[in-house]
Amino acid sequence: MEAPRRLGLMLLLPWVVCGCFSLLLLLPPVKSMCPEPCDCQLQQHLLCTNRGLRAVPKTADPQGILTYSLGGNFIANISAFDFHRLAGLQRLDLQYNRIRWLHPKAFERLALLEELYLGNNQLVALAPGTLRPLAKLRILYVNANEIGRLSTASFTGLGSLVKLRLDGNALASLGEATFSGLPNLLYLHLESNHIRWLSRGAFAGLAKLRFLDLSGNQQSSLRHPEIFGPLRSLSTLLLAGNSLQQLGGGLFQHLPSLAKLSLSSNRLTQLAPDAFAGLGALKELRLDGNLLSHLPATLLEPLRSLEALDLSRNVLAALHPATFGPLPKLRELSLRDNALAVLPGELFTSSLALQRLELDGNAWSCDCRLRGLKRWLGTRHSQGRLLTVFVQCRLPPALSGKYLDYLQDAQLLPPDGADCHSGTSPSPSLPPATGQWPREQQWQLILAPEGFGGNSSRSPAQGGPRSLPSASTMRLLDAQEGLAPARGSGRAEPTPTASLPDLLGSSRPPPPLAGPAWPRRARKHHLSPSAAGAPLVSDACDFNKLFLCNLSVEAVGTSSVTVRWWVRPHRSPRLLGPVRFRLLFDRFGAAVKFQRFVYLAERSEPAATLRELRPDTPYLVCVEGVLGGRVCPVAPRDHCVGLVTLPNGGAVGGPDHQLLTLVLLAVNALLLFVALAAWVSRLVRRKMQGRRQAAPVHVRQMYSTRRPLRSMGTGVSADFSGFQSHRPPRSAVACALSETDLIEFPCERFADSSSARRGEDHLLQQRFAD
C-alpha cells in the first residue's frame, strides 16, 4: 500500500507546481515606489539627480518620501500635480534645471516642507501666493535666476523662513516693506544683483536679521540712516564691490550690534568724521581698495572694540598721530600699497594689543622722520609682541631696497629742506663746558654707528647725526637717569664726556673712558662695577647689532667644531643679568632651520665647541645674545658662519669617495656579467646532453627466420638470460648477437653486467629452461 501512495504523490507534484506558476502569472503586476530612472537606495530619499529628466517622474507610493532630489535635469515647468501626492515631503531640490514657470498651486500640498532649492534656473518672477502654503519653510534658495522685481506678496506666508538667497538675479531696486512678511529671517543674500536704489523702508520688519550681503551691486551713495534703521540685530554688513562714492554721516548709527563692516573695492574718496558713529561693537572694518587720501583725526573714535582694520590699496599719503589712539583693542592693521613716505613715531604708541602690522608696498623715505617708528618696531619685536614688519626704503637712492630694521639711526639723515624734531644740536642749558651732555648726545657718543666702520670723525658738538637705541633701552636709561649725589657735595656727578670715535669700529678692545664712572641709582637697576663706563644695553637686538662681532671657526674635525666670537665692552642692568649666548646650528638644506640650540653658561668666554656632528657635512652656525631671558625675534643673519666637517679619518687628502664608488659599481657589473655567462653556458650544455641521450634505439630484425618462435629468450642481459636455456651466460664484454634474437639492443647498454649476479642468472636459466 505504501508504494502506490508514493507513486501517486510523485505523479501529482508536477501538476501542483504548474498550477502555482499559473496563479502567479494571473496576478496583476505591482508598481514599484521608485521611478525607473531614479535611485531609491537611501531610505525615505528619492534621488533623481542628473538623470536627463524633462518632467517630474511619478511614483506609486510617495507617502514615505522625505527628500526629493531633482537637480541637474532639464525640467522646464512645474505643474500643479507634480508634488500633490508628496504631503510628507520635507526637502525638495530643483536646482540646476531650466525652470521658467511655477504653477501657483505647485506647492499647495507641501505643508511640511522645510527646505526648497530653486537656484540656478531661469525664473523671471515669483508669482504672488506661490509660496504661501509653505508655512514651515526655513531655507529658500532662489539664487542665480533672472528675477528682476520683488513685491511684498512674493514672500507672504513664510513666517518661519530663516535663510533667503536672492543673489545672482537681476534686481534693480528694493521697494517699501519688501521683506515685511519674514519676521524670523536671519540671513539675507542680495549680492551680485543690479541694485541701484534702496527705499528707506526696504528692510522693514527684519528686526532679527543678523547677516546682510549687498556686495557686488551698483550703489553710488548711501545717505539716509533710516535705510538700516530696522536692523537692530545686524552683526555683518557687506557693501563691498559697489560704486559707493559717498557715505552719509551717521549712516550706521542704528546698528549697535554690528561686528563686521566691509566697504572694500568702492570709490570712496573721503569719509565724514561721524561716518562710523554708533558702531561701538564693531570688531572688523574693511576699507581696502578705495581712493582715500586722508582720514579725519576723529574718524575712528567711536570704534572702541575694533580689532581688525584694513586700509590697504588706497592713496593715503599721511596719517594724523592720533588716528589710531582710540583703538586699544586693535590687533591687525594693514596699510600696505598706499602712498605713505613717513609715519610719526607716536602713531602706534596707544595700540598695545597690535600683533600684525602691514606696511609694505609704500614708497618709504628712510630719513630721520622714521627714527621714532624704527624705535617702536624694535621695542615691539624685542618683546615678541609683533610679527615681522617689512619697511623697505625707496628714498634716498643710497638706501633704496634696504629694510628699516637693518639701518642705523645715523643713516637716517634729515631730508633736504626739512628739520627733524628729535634735536641735532647740544642743549643750550647743558653746554659742553659744564662737563655734561644731553642724554641723546650721550648715546651719540656711545652708540654712533659712524664709528662702526671706523670712518667717523665728527663729534656731537659738530652736529653729527646721532643713533639712539631701542625704546626699551631708553626706558631703562630713564630709570637710571637720576644722578647719585657725590659724597660730601650736593650736586650730581657729571656724566662722561670723552669722545669715542673708535669705540665700536675698532677690532681691539677700546681704552678705558676718562672721567667719572657711569651714573647709577642705589635703589634699582644696579650695574656691574667691572663694566663701569661701558655702554648700557638692555635689548637683545641692540646687542646683536652693536656689540657682537667677528664670529670665526677655530678648529674643525670629523664630528666637532670650535667657534669663537668677540664681544665689545658693554654693561647690562642687574635686573636683567649678564648677557648669555646661544648658538644655533643645523645642516644646510634642512626643511626647518635652527632646530638645535646650545646655551652657554653665564660669564663664559665667547667660544663654544659643537660635538656629535656628522662627518663631511656642511653646517651653518649662528650666535646671538640672550638678555634677560629674551632673544631678538630677527634671525642673527649677520653673525653666522658656514663650515664643512672633515670626512672620516680626519685627513683632507683622503680617498676619493666618488671614484671608489664608480670602481665598486664597475666590479659589481663585471661579476654580474660573469655569473650570467656561466648560467647561460650551463643551460646550453644541459640542452646538448639531453639531445644526445634521447637518440632512438635502432631495431635490426623484428622476427627471426632461423629459429622457432618458442625460442623467446635473449642473451643480451643477465635479467633476460633465463629465457634461453640453450645459451650459456655471457661472460665477455663483447656482445655478439646472432640472427636468432628477435630484437637487437645496443651492446653498450648490457656490457656492465656484474659477475656477482652470474649465479643468480644461472639459477633463473635452469628454472625456465625448456
Radius of gyration: 51 Å
Task: Name the average pLDDT.
Answer: 75
CATH class of the domain at 546-645: Mainly Beta
Strand content: 5-15%
Name the CATH architecture of the domain at 546-645: Sandwich
Query: How is the largest sheet built, in terms of strand order?
Result: 1-2-4-6-7-8-10-12-14-16-17-18-19-20
The shape, in one word, is flat
Transmembrane segments: 659-681
Main location: membrane
Protein name: TLR4 interactor with leucine rich repeats
Pfam family, one: LRR_8
Please describe what this structure looks like:
It is a single chain. This protein is α/β, with parallel strands linked by helices and about 775 residues long. The protein has a domain at about 545-645: Immunoglobulin-like. It has seven helices and 29 strands. It has helices at about 1-25, 370-380, 440-445, 470-480, 540-545, 655-695, 760-765; strands spanning about 45, 65-70, 75-80, 90-95, 100, 115, 140, 165, 175, 185-190, 195-200, 210-215, 220, 235-240, 245, 260, 285, 310, 330-335, 355-360, 365, 395, 550-555, 560-565, 580-585, 595-600, 605-610, 620-625, 640-645. The strands form seven sheets. It has a 14-stranded parallel beta sheet with strand order 1-2-4-6-7-8-10-12-14-16-17-18-19-20, with no helix packed on it. A hairpin with a 4-residue loop joins strand 23 (about 550-555) and strand 24. The chain starts with a helix and ends with a helix. The model is unreliable at about 20-30, about 420-530, about 700-725, about 730-745 and about 745-755 (pLDDT under 50). It holds the Pfam family LRR_8. Keywords: Disulfide bond, Glycoprotein, Immunity, Inflammatory response, Innate immunity, Leucine-rich repeat, Membrane, Phosphoprotein, Repeat, Signal, Transmembrane, Transmembrane helix. This is TLR4 interactor with leucine rich repeats. InterPro entries: Cys-rich_flank_reg_C (IPR000483), Dev_Immune_Receptor (IPR050328), FN3_sf (IPR036116), Leu-rich_rpt (IPR001611), Leu-rich_rpt_typical-subtyp (IPR003591), LRR_dom_sf (IPR032675). It is a single-pass type I membrane protein.
